[in-house]
Design goal:
- The chain is of the alpha+beta class.
- It is 34% helix and 22% strand.
- The strands form 3 sheets. Strands 1, 2, 3, 4, 5, 6, 7, 8, 9, 10, 11 and 12 form a 12-stranded mixed β-sheet that branches.
- The termini are far apart.
Length: 483
C-alpha cells in the first residue's frame, strides 16, 4: 500500500455507503457470503486477485482505483445543495449572529481571518503565507461560475428571503440587484499556505466542523490563540451569505489530503415552495451515513471542479482557500477589485506590521500579499504587503487642560477625542513599530504620547529654553534641535 493511501476496507465501506448498498447486497452480486465482504471492510482479509475486476465493475470504476484509492468510485449521488429544515420547535433565526459580533467590513475580516491563519501555522520555521484576491466576474465567465455553483437551485430560496423585508433580506436584495442589473459578481478569495487546513470529521469536533458546521467555535489548540469564532466574518462579508471552501489537509481524512471542498450558504429562516427552512445550506455530496442521510457533506473534488468554482490552489502546501461570493465592504465603497485591493493592503499593513517583520532573533510569522483580477486576468499583479511601507493610522488625540507630567495618562484628564488619519513615511512607520515593541503600547497610545512629548518640547524651545540629552553615561550633554 502506498504511503498515506486509505486502507482498502475503509475505502470499500465508504463506496458501499455512497451507493446505498449493504454488504449483503454487494456480496450477493459477487456470489459470495456477507461474512467475506465484512472481512474486507474490517481489514481482516483482502479480496482475491481474480475477483477484483468484478468488484470494479459493480462499483463503476477501474481495477487501478482499487489499488490507488485516491478517488471515489462512480456514484449516482451528485453534488447538490442541502437546506436545513426548520426547527420542529418553531424556533427561527433571522440573521447570522457572527455578523453582529465582529462586523462585516473588510478591516474586520482581514483581522480575524489573517489571525486565524497565523494561529494555524504548521511549520514554525516558515511564515504562514496568506493571499487575498479581489476578483470580478462578468459575461461568460460569470455564467460559467453560476452554472458550477448550481445557481438555479438557489433562486427560489433567494427570492423568499429577498421578499421577507428582514434586514438580512435587504442586504441580500442589494447583492442580487447588482448581479441582475449589472451582470457582475465580486469574489474575495483568501488562501493560506503552511497552515493546518480544515482537518477533522464531518460532524464531530475538529477544524472543519468549527469553520463550516458551527458558529463561534474557534477550535484553538492553545489558550494564547486569538483568531475568529468559526470564521464568521467570511459569511458576514458576503452580500449573498455564501462562502466556498477548498482545503488541503495537514492530516489525512478518509485517506486523502487534497481538495476537500464544501460550500455553505447562511440565509435566515424562510419558506420556499411551501416548505419552511432554518436558513443554512451546504453544497456537497449527499451523505449516506446513518443519521445523516441526505445531508450535504464535503467531497473530494477533481481539479476541473475546483477550477470551475474558482478554488484551484497554487501548490500542495497544506492550508485552505475561502471564496466569499458577492463580497462587500459594509464600511465603505470597495465595490471594484481595484478599490478592494487598496483597502485590503492598507488593513494588512496597519494590523499586522509586527507579524510581517523579521528581527535579529525572530523570524516573520506572516507573509501577506494582495492581487486584483477581472475575468481571470490580472488587473493588479500580486504584491507582497510591506509592513514598513506608507500606511494610515487612526488615532484619538486628547486635548489636555491639566498640568500633569508629559506622557502621563491621568484618570482625571478631560479627553476631547478626535480622529485623525496620519500618512506615515517608511522611516516613520519603522520608528513607530520599534516604539510599539519597546513600550508594548498600542499604536494609538504610542502616537498620542509622541504628540504630547513633541508639543511639550516645542513649548520649551519656543519659550526661550533648550533641550539637552546625554546619550551615554558620563557623556557630554548635547542640545536637541528640531528641523
Amino acid at each position: 500500500m502506498m504511503e498515506g493511501t486509505e486502507g482498502f476496507g475503509v475505502w470499500l465501506g465508504r463506496q458501499l455507503r455512497r451507493r446505498g448498498m449493504s454488504q449483503a447486497e454487494f456480496a450477493q452480486q459477487l456470489g459470495l457470503t456477507r461474512a467475506a465482504v465484512s472481512a474486507w471492510v474490517t481489514g481482516r482479509a483482502r479480496p482475491r486477485v481474480d475477483i477484483l475486476a468484478r468488484i470494479a465493475e459493480i462499483l463503476q470504476t477501474d481495477v487501478a482505483a482499487l489499488f490507488t484509492r485516491d478517488v471515489d468510485a462512480g456514484s449516482t449521488r451528485p453534488v447538490a445543495w442541502y437546506h436545513r429544515p426548520a426547527h420542529r420547535d418553531g424556533g427561527r433565526e433571522y440573521a447570522n449572529a457572527a455578523a453582529f459580533a465582529v462586523g462585516s467590513n473588510l478591516a474586520a475580516l482581514v483581522k480575524e481571518v489573517t489571525q486565524n491563519s497565523i494561529d494555524e501555522r504548521l511549520d514554525p520555521r516558515r511564515p504562514v503565507r496568506v493571499r487575498f484576491t479581489a476578483h470580478e466576474l462578468t459575461g461568460e465567465y460569470l455564467n460559467a461560475f453560476l452554472t458550477a455553483l448550481k445557481w438555479g437551485d438557489l433562486e427560489p430560496h433567494f427570492t423568499a428571503v429577498e421578499e421577507s423585508g428582514k434586514k438580512a433580506g435587504r442586504v441580500l436584495a442589494e447583492g442580487l440587484r447588482s448581479l441582475r442589473d449589472n451582470s457582475t459578481l465580486l469574489l474575495l478569495r483568501i488562501d493560506d499556505y503552511n497552515a493546518s487546513g480544515l482537518t477533522g470529521p464531518e460532524y464531530g469536533d475538529g477544524r472543519y466542523a468549527a469553520a463550516v458546521r458551527r458558529q463561534f467555535d474557534s477550535h484553538k489548540d492553545n489558550d494564547e490563540s486569538d483568531g475568529s469564532y468559526g470564521l464568521g466574518t467570511l459569511w458576514a462579508a458576503s452580500s449573498l451569505g455564501m462562502v466556498l471552501v477548498n482545503s488541503t489537509l495537514s492530516e489525512s481524512h478518509e485517506g486523502r489530503t487534497a481538495r476537500r471542498v464544501v460550500g455553505r450558504l447562511d440565509l435566515p429562516w424562510h419558506e420556499a415552495g411551501g416548505v419552511a427552512y432554518a436558513g443554512p445550506a451546504w453544497l456537497g455530496e449527499p451523505d449516506s451515513e446513518k443519521g445523516y442521510e441526505g445531508v450535504s457533506r464535503s467531497w473530494w473534488a477533481d481539479e476541473r471542479t475546483v477550477a470551475d468554482l474558482r478554488l484551484d490552489r497554487d501548490s500542495g502546501d497544506p492550508g485552505t482557500s475561502f471564496l466569499v461570493v458577492g463580497a462587500r465592504d459594509a464600511a465603505g465603497d470597495a465595490s471594484t477589485p481595484e478599490r478592494m485591493h487598496e483597502v485590503l493592503t492598507c488593513a494588512l499593513s496597519e494590523q499586522f506590521p509586527v507579524a510581517m517583520s523579521a528581527g535579529h532573533s525572530m523570524a516573520a510569522t506572516l507573509e501577506a500579499s494582495v492581487r486584483a483580477m477581472r475575468n481571470g486576468e490580472s488587473v493588479i499583479p500580486e504584491q507582497r504587503v510591506n509592513p514598513h511601507g506608507r500606511r494610515s493610522t487612526q488615532v484619538h488625540a486628547p486635548h489636555l487642560d491639566g498640568g500633569e507630567p508629559v506622557g502621563a495618562t491621568a484618570p482625571e484628564e478631560r479627553l476631547l477625542a478626535r480622529q485623525a488619519t496620519l500618512g506615515l513615511t517608511s522611516k516613520s512607520a519603522q520608528d513607530l513599530d520599534r516604539a510599539v515593541k519597546l513600550t508594548r503600547d498600542s499604536e494609538a497610545d504610542t502616537i498620542n504620547r509622541a504628540i504630547r512629548v513633541y508639543a511639550y518640547l516645542m513649548d520649551v524651545i519656543e519659550g526661550g529654553g533648550s533641550v539637552h540629552v546625554r546619550q551615554t553615561e558620563g557623556g557630554d550633554l548635547e542640545t536637541v534641535r528640531f528641523l
